[in-house]
Write a structure and sequence with these properties.
Elements lengths: L10 E5 L6 H7 L7 E6 L3 H15 L3 E6 L5 H14 L3 E6 L2 H12 L3 E6 L11 E6 L2 E6 L5 E5 H6 L2 H12 L1 H15 L5 H16 L1 H5 L3 H21 L8 H12 L6 H16 L3 H11 L5 H4 L3 H10 L18 H10 L5
Parallel strand pairs: 1-8, 2-3, 2-4, 4-5, 5-8
Antiparallel strand pairs: 6-7
Helix pairs in contact: 1-2, 3-4, 6-10, 6-12, 7-8, 7-12, 8-10, 11-12, 11-15, 12-13, 15-16
Bound molecules: zinc ion (ZN).
Pathway: Membrane lipid metabolism; glycerophospholipid metabolism
Family: Belongs to the glycerol-1-phosphate dehydrogenase family.
Catalytic activity: sn-glycerol 1-phosphate + NAD(+) = dihydroxyacetone phosphate + NADH + H(+); sn-glycerol 1-phosphate + NADP(+) = dihydroxyacetone phosphate + NADPH + H(+)
């Protein structure tokens, strides 16, 4: 019998000043006092919150360890697995923007343990998704793992993170407009499985961010909650679809291709946002509306703002279809020619 298993987070807590209640949440979730918890955080600003979480666990009787990670790479994953061998945790908690959450997700998946996501910024949809990105020699790879059993998102912590991170998260969310169009195309042309419910969830997140772009652009605290909820909704969409299809299409392929051809320090969601303007143009949709939402948010809409050259954008466009050949998108099997790529980038104002 064919079946499609859906794993979803059991508990989502979004509120103010809740980062120190992680210990109590773990008790509520049924983890017994005296069990061992491995907390992973970044080693710079998020380390502070990693320590807050560790203390909140110790206070209610858990045996908690904090380990810091500087990147999400295969070698660090091995190191985390070694630490886990020594400490024998019953639960792993990732506290951070992305890397610590990615590693907590992957390590717990490999060890068949539960994990909890405590995001300290809202820069991409990995905070609630079943996928994790991992760096190896070939660049960043996205791996299927499992979603967190709980997400504890402290609005004040995320609000105090650099605004650029939140805006990048919005770029990642707005990319769902093109990801869903690519998915529908793959369904029509390739008979690929398409789930209306998960596609609608991803689109709902993108619509919410587009509608609230002005408020988010002004960096109002209320808007932080909208972005967190939208990112969580994207994570649910991926869990329900059983793949990243509703959340990752040609705009993500462009973003990954750009990371390969340039040394840009632009954030994931910033590259996805720009990719999404160009892919929406190819889809014949409202690319201008998408671009103005990004502008209102204060997100990059041009090569210059991403810190890349026109040549790099063109090269990334021509390479994008090779990144994940099995993922059919508007770029087709053969991709886009150099000349068409240049015309596309000029027509959408990404390059001059
Ligand atoms: Zn993304």
């Amino acid at each position: 019998m064919k079946f499609h298993a859906i794993h979803l987070p059991r508990f989502v807590l979004v509120g103010e000043d809740i980062v120190d209640s992680v210990g109590r949440v773990c008790l509520d979730l049924g983890f017994a006092k005296g069990s061992t918890v491995l907390v992973l955080s970044g080693n710079t600003s998020t380390r502070y919150f990693g320590d807050v979480v560790r203390k909140s666990l110790a206070e209610v009787g858990f045996n908690a360890f904090l380990d810091t990670v500087e990147e999400s790479s295969s070698s660090l994953l091995e190191r985390v697995l070694d630490v886990a061998k020594e400490t024998k945790p019953n639960l792993i908690i990732g506290v951070g923007g992305g890397k610590a959450i990615d590693l907590a997700k992957l390590a717990s998946f490999k060890l068949n343990l539960q994990f909890i996501s405590v995001p300290t910024s809202a820069s991409h949809d990995g905070i609630a998704s079943p996928r994790a990105s991992l760096m190896n020699e070939r660049g960043a790879l996205s791996e299927l793992a499992h979603p967190p059993i709980a997400i504890i998102a402290d609005v004040n912590v995320i609000y105090s993170a650099p605004r650029r991170l939140l805006v990048s998260g919005c770029g990642d969310i707005l990319g769902k407009f093109t990801a869903v169009r690519d998915w529908r195309l793959a369904h029509k042309l390739r008979g690929e499985y398409y789930g209306e419910y998960s596609a609608s969830l991803a689109l709902l997140a993108a619509k919410m961010v587009k509608k609230d772009a002005e408020m988010i652009g002004r960096h109002r605290k209320e808007s932080v909650r909208t972005v967190i909820e939208a990112l969580i909704s994207c994570g649910y969409a991926m869990s329900i679809a059983g793949s990243s299809r509703p959340c990752s299409g040609s705009e993500h392929l462009f973003s990954h291709a750009l990371s390969r051809v340039s040394k840009t320090r632009a954030l994931h969601g910033e590259k996805v946002g720009v990719g999404s303007i160009m892919m929406m143009y190819l889809h014949g949709g409202d690319w201008k509306g998408l671009r103005s939402a990004l502008k209102v948010l204060g997100a990059p809409t041009t090569a210059k703002e991403l810190g890349v050259t026109a040549e790099e954008v063109i090269e990334a466009l021509t390479l994008a279809h090779t990144i994940r050949p099995e993922r059919y998108t508007i770029l087709g099997d053969k991709g886009i020619s150099q000349k068409a790529a240049e015309e596309l980038a000029i027509a959408t104002g990404v390059i001059d």
